[in-house]
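Lecture 7, part 2: worked example. A protein chain together with heme C.
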Amino acid sequence: MLKYTSLCLSMFLALSAMSEAQDAGRGEEMFDKKCQGCHRRTDAVKNGPGLAGVTKRRTAEWLHKWLADPKALIESGDPQAVAMLGRFKIKMPTIDLMQDEKNRNDMIAFLSTLE
Ligand code: HEC
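Predicted complex, written out as structure tokens:
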């Protein structure tokens, strides 16, 4: 019983740490400033692909790599990154704000709200 209680407690602590770690509202603010010039929240194409459902077609690990340095991911030969080449007139730039892991977590939390 004691084991069960401490298991529940540690799960609860882990979950609250996660929700603190990810702030979709901050992600949305960054999206409006840095991303919406090229991306829509739907699946419609603008300068880049629409981002609805992007957290379903890509893993969090992939998104971290992509957001931090799109060019490096393409150059690494990553098949999903390479597959996007040539489909859009421009390439996604490296974005200063996305060099920070917390910012990327918040952005990914926001992206996961787009369906
Ligand atoms: C100047 C235009 C531009 C800006 C600004 C931009 N992107 Fe992109 N993004 C692109 C293009 C173009 C692609 C398609 C891949 C390529 O050719 O570079 C892309 C691809 C992506 C992908 C992969 C989509 C998929 O289907 O896998 C994600 C995720 C993404 N961008 C997120 C963001 C986020 C988040 C921001 C803001 C922090 C942002 N982008 C800012 C142009 C942009």
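The CA atoms of residues 6 and 12 lie 10 Å apart. Residues 34-35, 37-39, 47-49, 51, 54, 58, 63, 66-67, 70, 84-85, 88, 90-93, 95, 98, 107 surround heme C (CB under 6 Å). Keep this in mind for problem set question 3.
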